[in-house]
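If it is no trouble, can you show me the amino acids of a protein and the tokens describing how it folds?
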Amino acid sequence: MTPEIAAEAMRTYTQETNRLNRQRRSSSESTRPSLPKPRKPIAEIVLVIEQRGWHRALSDRLTELEAKQDSLTAH
């Protein structure tokens, strides 16, 4: 392998690595603002259940919010 070919391979590798990093950061930044959203309603529902008792509607909503939070965290 000539030095010129090696240098071109390194430039190409660096460019692709930078592109992938930008794409990853962009994706995580667009998801990150959504993360806190389910936390507050989850905490409020838990508080209501603790203070006033269990209700099926609260439990169903809590399950929905927890699934959304798990999905956002996984991304």
